[in-house]
Amino acid sequence: MLKIENVFSGYGEKEVLKGIKTEFRRGRFYAILGPNGSGKSTLLRTFAKILKPKRGTVLLDNRDIKNLSAKEIAKKIAYLPQMSNSVPHSTVFDSVLLGRKPHVFFEPTKRDLEIVEKIIHELGLTQHALRKIDELSGGEAQKVLIARALAQEPEVLLLDEPVNHLDPKNQIEILWLLKKTTNDFKIATIVVLHDINLAIQFADYFIFMKNGEIYREGDLDVIGDVLIRDVYNIDVKIIEVNGSKFVIMKS
Ligand SMILES: Nc1ncnc2c1ncn2[C@@H]1O[C@H](COP(=O)(O)OP(=O)(O)O)[C@@H](O)[C@H]1O
Ligand SMILES: [Mg+2]
């Protein structure tokens, strides 16, 4: 559904992405991995049409996104940037409701309100629904932004390091919810993650970025000590416990 053909992208003269070619399918949870500066955020910005590719095309359901209006894109793609320090001053409920905007014609329908309520409940935010976001903790505020992206009911969900500011329990809860949403609604979920073990636990498919290129991609089988060493320049040991892979950092 989302097809990337030979994409070069960057900022001004600075070339960051150098010939990205890959495809994302419905009902799959993708983890984007790779060291700082490898181009993960630039990749997501290019998919969300925040950045225009210098060369190559991003196809959404076989249509070049450069020909799609902002509203058409917002109906299909939800994008949550890497955590910024500025959070909106509105209430939790209103912020999540904003996610419905691409679908709303005149004013929100009963269904819009029900969707918002359900997502707020699923993310455990009900007790905060009428509070202002800037009065919440960083982790709670991040959950609100994730809730807004889900309320958008996208076909492609792009999340840039969504769980970095959350405690372990919230990280797992959010990733479970994202995985369930991916399967239930057959969307393509593309998440930048730093924690390789969390990625292994939740993702179906892994894309390793290095120096603006896809260094390697594939299912769980691609993850091995040599690959991790090549991509991150760290020594690791991979162990298996109860049939699950774990990456252990060596000091
Ligand atoms: N707004 C920007 N203007 C200029 N260069 C940028 C900008 N954002 C990122 N870069 C550069 O692009 C490269 C890739 O950055 P980024 O995509 O943010 O990497 P990652 O998300 O993998 O850490 C880095 O060298 C970074 O300095
Ligand atoms: Mg980034």
Automatic annotation (TrEMBL):
The lineage of its organism: Bacteria, Pseudomonadati, Nitrospirota, Thermodesulfovibrionia, Thermodesulfovibrionales. Keywords: ATP-binding, Nucleotide-binding, Translocase, Transport. PANTHER family: HEMIN IMPORT ATP-BINDING PROTEIN HMUV (PTHR42794:SF1). InterPro entries: AAA+_ATPase, ABC_transporter-like_ATP-bd, ABC_transporter-like_CS, P-loop_NTPase. This is Iron ABC transporter ATP-binding protein. Residues 2-236 form the ABC transporter domain. One of its GO terms (molecular function) is ATP hydrolysis activity. The keyword Transmembrane helix does not apply. Part of the ABC transporter complex HmuTUV involved in hemin import. Responsible for energy coupling to the transport system.
